[in-house]
Amino acid sequence: MASEKKGIDELAAAIQEDLQGGTDNKRKYWLLAERAYQLIRNERMRDLSKAKLAADIEGAMQKDEFNLYTFIQGYTHGK
């Protein structure tokens, strides 16, 4: 469209509508939800380190048959 020099009026109208707040805020809500999710995740994992996990996995593997999904239940349930 740009090479045909078409669509300028539509673009201008869309920009004007956006500036007036007439667009749907779903994208804004989605972006805020994504950021909230990241902050919550970071807060919940604050006391967890990869080095500690590696050490715990090493110890668990030496004891018996290791299952990752069973192992993580100790970290996800009851915390």
Structure explained in plain terms:
By secondary structure, the chain is an all-alpha fold. The chain folds into two domains: 46 residues, no CATH class; 32 residues. Helices cover 68% and strands 0% of the residues. The protein has four helices and no strands. It is elongated. The termini are far apart. The mean pLDDT is 84.
Count up the domains.
2
Distance between the termini: 55 Å
Percent helix: 55-70%
The biggest sheet, with number of strands, parallel, antiparallel or mixed sense and barrel status, is: none
Query: What is the residue-mean pLDDT, rounded to a whole number?
Result: 84
Secondary-structure-derived class:
mainly alpha
Secondary structure: number of strands: 0
Rough outline: elongated
H and E order: HHHH
% residues in beta strands: under 5%
Summed up, the helix count is: 4
Rg estimate, integer Å: 25 Å
Low-confidence stretches: none
What characteristics describe this protein?
79 residues; 2 domains; 4 helices
How are the elements arranged and paired?
Elements: H1 8-19, H2 26-44, H3 50-63, H4 68-76
Structure summary:
The chain has 79 residues and is mostly helical. It is built from four helices and no strands. The protein is elongated, with a radius of gyration of 25 Å.
